[in-house]
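User: Could you write out the 3D structure of this protein bound to 1-deoxynojirimycin? I've included everything you need below.
Assistant: Certainly. Input first, then the structure.
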Amino acid sequence: MTLSTSFRSPHIDQKVAGLLEQMTLEEKIGQLVQFSSGNATGPDNAKVDQAELAAQGGIGSVLNLVGARETNALQRCAMEKSRLGIPILFSRDIIHGFRTIYPIPLAMSATWDADIAEQCARMAAVEGTAHGIRWTFSPMMDIARDARWGRISEGNGEDPWLGQVLAAAWVRGYQGQDLSDPLSMVACAKHFVAYGGAEGGRDYNTVDVSDRVLREIYLPPFKAAIDAGVGTFMSAFNTVQSVPASADVRMLTGVLRDEWGFQGFVVSDWNSIGELIPHGYALKGEDAALKALIAGVDMDMQSNLYITKLSGLVESGRLKVEVIDEAVRRVLRIKFALGLFENPYTDESREAAVTLKPEWLALAQKAAEESFVLLKNEGAGDGKPVLPLQSGQTVALIGALADSAKDMLGSWALSGVPGDVTTLRQSLESRLGDKLIYARGVGVHEEGTDGIAAAVEAATRADVVVIALGETSDMSGEATSRTRLSLPGKQLELLQAVVATGKPVVLVLFNGRPLTIPWEAEHVPAILEAWLPGTQAGPALVRALYGEYNPSGKLTTTFPRTVGQIPLYYNCERTGRPRPGGDRFITGYIDESHLPLYPFGWGLSYTSFEYSPTRFSSEAEVRVSDLNHGGSIQVEATVKNTGSREGAEVAQCYIGLRGTSVVRPVRELKGFQKVLLQPGESRKVTFSLTSKELAFWNIDMQFIAEPCELTVWIAPHAQAGEPAKMIIEA
Ligand code: NOJ
């Protein structure tokens, strides 16, 4: 039984019906409103006395009130003073940890490890619930193909297959086996839908998306979240095919409820109901509230419109009370499923016991290690790769980010505390003592170059340089779109001066999105992508730099060479003039390669892996009718560790279809396996391709497999692999 059916049990329905019968219109509307206690991420137009409102039964949910004592105090107003004693649902953006901060979601996706994502979400739930929160606005599952969009950092990357696997894992972790467990919190699938498609990568911008792209790219992770039992959804800010997502009946009711059978409730994004007016979709507050509720937005986050307009709409006859009743039922179902009626308060003794526990720190460190992507590792003249570092070397550590605790946390680390973070500088210092020379160089946003000379001097005194550059924490996340994706400020100048010393250099990148680093990729021998790693940044990095952890992360977003190549993603549709082809009249640019700097799936290791050619396990003929009736195709390859260290490799299975009723992408990821191999060890990896992997939305928008030529690559990244081909017969 999935959780989605558990919050729709006859038992819960009966309780909801009994309560609904007793509620006044005002009390019903109260369940549909949510107000914030701080951390405004938009206009703060709902200033209410929450305690007074709670005592009247007029507030369904509060966001951003934190602490067992604080939430209990407000809960008491609702439970003890209001007529019906309906508990408040406390919520917060617990996006990558509550107090123990693990890497940002984009980094977590680079682990390609659903288990660690689930464990991290569980840790966040246990910590967060101790502080009174039973609802998190996570996971964000917006597919993002544009690195200019700062919120690419909050999701699982550009691929819908990986996005589905991870969306489900996050939901399982937060919600646990049983939503009524006081250590569980209800998850929120956001932002429904296609928010990641913002034109120009500009946050909140219009999204122009076809039905096909919606179905194939943006919707699948949301469906996977429902299958994993997610209890709530958040409607997005953007328009979808010219309708604001927060009033889109086709999506919120047509797809979500009627087609997918979602039984939980939908909350708007912050003031996204109010924003129907600037969109020009509603003329005034009444219209906005009416359109959003009728479309299927059950709870209003902070626009103040449901609370002020819904009763008037009912009185004037424009809104049937049954529509309100249905929304209230959905909200109450989740409150009953969470066990809030029996257990409305948080045990105040839990906070200290579960916060920053050693085992949480160990998990956050493991996650950070797994998320690092070794982009490059070559020799600096002597042919021997610069990484891992050798013990005994004197190390010059350069860069402001190496010593910036707050910049390790990433956006939305709302309850994260910089003082909890161990930085790269601290960890290297405790390992190396006076064999470490630190020079700050230049700050990320500074225009002055005075610090460069001291950094160069430090480099000349060392055997090897580790230079930490990138973005500050506040450069990714909401409302952080960028038009330039190179290293900000004078960091490249600093790097160039350090590289010019001739010392071996390791570039550690801290950033929340792909950056354009063509000079760096050409001139720096070793580059480790560390993202924004969280509380345990330092210890995780030191282990990776010294080879005590062998990097195994793989990119989940393409790294472009220049901003001008964007959008650039691996699963693009085939063109009629592909490369390689003729000399000139083929798709590409006259001033830049059409290829990425680092492709989707890319990531090196301190060992090396060799893949055998891909092959089908059987030569038997395959018919499409068999596939559409449960048949499958087995495909395999052997991965061998050809180096001298143990290492983990993410073997990726891609398909390509030709001869179909619509043009298909050049490749699509349809599976992956992470294998740990000893030096010299080989392992056969096998993937089963069923209609789930081979079906697509055909010319008639039916999701089925078609007769075609199938190509399969089992490969280390999206541009590699020796393929196998077969014909799938009619
Ligand atoms: C706006 C953001 O878009 C959303 O992701 C977040 O959950 C809400 N604000 C609440 O903070």
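Residues 114-130 form the longest helix (17 residues).
User: Perfect, thank you.
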